Each structure stands twice: as structure tokens, then as C-alpha cells.
Write the C-alpha cells for this entry.
Amino acid sequence: MPNNNYNLYQSSYVNYNWTNNFKNEKINSISTNAITPWFDASLQVSTLNDHLYFENSSTNENQQIVSPKQYNKTINYLSIKLNKELKLGKFALDNTFLYQKVDQRDFIVNVPEIVARNTFYFSGDAFHKALFFQTGVTLNYFTRYYANDYNPVIGEFFVQNKKQIGNYPNLDFFFNGKIQRTRIYLIAEHFNSSLSGNNFYAATQQSLS
């Protein structure tokens, strides 16, 4: 069923007031999982009808007028995920790959086609085994796509097709440890950002007025 933001919204902003009576979304989904000696795999196939979403109807690039919409065409979604962790002594490499494909006439459900997450880490003990720790580097990557933008007035994400993000590596360094009942977790997120010249979008951002 549509949530309250789709059917009814009242605000001091003139353009952010609406009353709707949307139909319920129809979602049919089939998923299956497989565990093999080589990798774990999962497959999902979904069909979406009467999909609800938010859209910016403003023709001014420096303005947002976001309102709810209901898509009257069918959207087909396919995802295939593979996962495998390789271990050699105290070293390990955990790999996850996701492939996604959307069949639609318009840019409504936008997702990156390929998503990869690879973590190389070391596990060990220190201080006469009083401390157990893991430390390593995680690589996150996804192909370029039109990520949804965010509207703070209604607290919702909305569809946009003007700015793309992605297609660059994101490296995180982490350390986590356990001393009896105490847990320690440190992370340096995207520490390679300066090495790539900061020539990328971390998220889409448009002006609100």
C-alpha cells in the first residue's frame, strides 16, 4: 500500500501539498539460492506494476518541485549475486559480485549494473591471545548510473536522470578487535579519494528552492 507521503502531504511550501488516491503496487518476485563448493549464488526475478516513485517536475535546474507519481507500465528486474571467501592461513579474501538488469521504458528504477565488494584481511592474536583482531582493506565498486537524489522537505529520494555517479574504486581501511567483552572498530573510509583527484560524485545533489 502507498505510504502517507504518497497519498497526503501538507507543507508551508506551496508546491508541496497534495492529496492522492494511488492504487496498490503489484510486485511478483521469484528468488532462489545455491550453495556450491566453488561459490554461493542467488537469483532474483521481479515484476513491478503500478510502481510508486517521486519525481522532480521543475524545469529549473536550480529548483526542486518533487511530487509522487505512479508508473502505469511494467518494470522487470533481474539480479544475480555470487559470493566466495578464500582463506590461506590467517589471510582471507572475501568476494561479492552483483549483476542487475532492469527492463523498463523510462528511467524509473535506476540501479548500477555491476556491484563488487572485495575484502582482503588478516586475522590474528596479540598480547598473549588477550586481543583478537582483524585488519584489512575493502574495495567497493559499482558501474555508473543515475542514482536517486534526496529531497529534505519530504524526506524521500526521487528519480533523476541528469547526474550519474559511480565507475570509480572506493577503498576502506579497517581494524576491529575484541578484548574479552570489549569490541574495538576503526575505519578510514574512502582513503583513496585524494589519489583519484576528487573528480567524482559521492552522491547526486541538486539545489532546493
Notes: The longest strand covers residues 75-88. The mean pLDDT is 91.
